[in-house]
Structure formats: C-alpha cells, structure tokens
Design brief:
Subcellular location: Periplasm
Number of helices: 3
Helix content: 10-25%
Function: Involved in the assembly process of the P-ring formation. It may associate with FlgF on the rod constituting a structure essential for the P-ring assembly or may act as a modulator protein for the P-ring assembly.
Organism: Sphingomonas abietis
InterPro entries: Flagellar_FlgA, SAF_FlgA
Distance between the termini: 49 Å
Family: Belongs to the FlgA family.
Number of strands: 8
Strand content: 25-35%
Structural class: alpha+beta
C-alpha cells in the first residue's frame, strides 16, 4: 500500500461521518441504538428503554456530527441530525414516572399527546385544517382534516383532502398544522 493510500485510510477512519456509517454507506443504526440505550441507561424492552430495536430497513443519510438524543418526552426520545434535517422518534417502554404510555401495545397517539392534557385542544377531530409546509422563502398549503384532537405544539394525524394518506404534523394555531414536507 502506498503512503498516500494509507494516509487516506487514516483520514477516513478518524472522520465522524465515516465512523457513523455502516457497510452500505448509511447511518449505522446498531451504533446509534447503542448510544440510545446508553443515554437512557435501559436496554431494549426494559422499563425506560426502547420498545424494540431500531428498524434496520431505515436508510438514513450519515450525520456529519454526533446525532443529538433528546431527553425522553411523551413516551419517546427523538434522535436528530440538525445539519441534514432528519429526525426519528423511538418509543419507550413505560417506566415509573413517565407521563405518557408507550409500550408495544399502545404506541399510537400516546406519542403525540400527553396522557393528562392541561389545556383544551385547539383542533378537534374532524375539523378542517390548513396543512402548511415550506422553507427558504416559499410556503405550500393544502386542505386537510384532523384525525385527532390537537393542542398548540402537539403532533396530530391529518388526512389531506387530495390524498388518501395519513400524515403527522405539529399544531401551530387553531386552523393550521405544519409539516416538514408532504
């Protein structure tokens, strides 16, 4: 091996983007899962830990810096790569002191709303809403129907009028739900 080739291998081995990838060039979900388990101090399937292993069918672009692991909230932790813009939520097994139920039998709406809401919902199930998405100087809106009640800042399921697909967005105000894309 030439000096130039060895220097390139050493450079790539020290690169955080290279270290976080698997053999196929995507984010290494096994290492990411290990970081989550370590941050939560609870193994997969144990109280306070992830409900199940990360789905290895996910093909995430490698994050150039360490993936941010948010504190547990609403029965899940969020894993974020700010520079690229991806985020995944990992449901947690209910542990003593957790606010929301999140186990393998009840992962649905419990991830998006608190088990004991303190404010009345801004959007009720069946209400027409504006689905909003946009970035860098443009905004796209379409009509949708709320599939569940939602509070300011909470995540709810909506069904766009022109599509038969359920999507999840964040309640911005009484008639608007924001999504990253649709």
């Amino acid at each position: 091996m030439t000096r130039k080739g060895l220097a390139l291998i050493l450079l790539l081995a020290g690169s955080p983007a290279y270290a976080a990838t698997d053999a196929s060039g995507f984010e290494d979900l096994t290492k990411l899962e290990g970081r989550v388990v370590g941050a939560l101090d609870a193994d997969v399937g144990k109280p306070g830990g992830p409900v199940t292993h990360l789905d290895h069918r996910l093909k995430l672009q490698p994050c150039p810096q360490p993936v941010a692991i948010d504190p547990p909230a609403l029965g899940a932790v969020a894993l974020r790569c700010e520079s690229i813009g991806w985020r995944i939520r990992v449901p947690l097994v209910k542990a003593p002191g957790m606010n929301a139920v999140a186990n393998s039998a009840a992962v649905g709406p419990a991830l998006y709303q608190s088990a004991q809401p303190t404010t009345p919902p801004l959007i009720k199930r069946g209400d027409p809403v504006q689905l909003v998405s946009g970035d860098n100087g443009f905004t796209v809106t379409t009509s949708a129907v709320a599939q569940e009640d939602g509070r300011l800042g909470g995540r709810i399921r909506v069904k766009a009028s022109d599509r038969n697909q359920i999507m999840i967005g964040m309640v911005e105000d009484g008639g608007s739900v924001r999504m990253s894309s649709f």
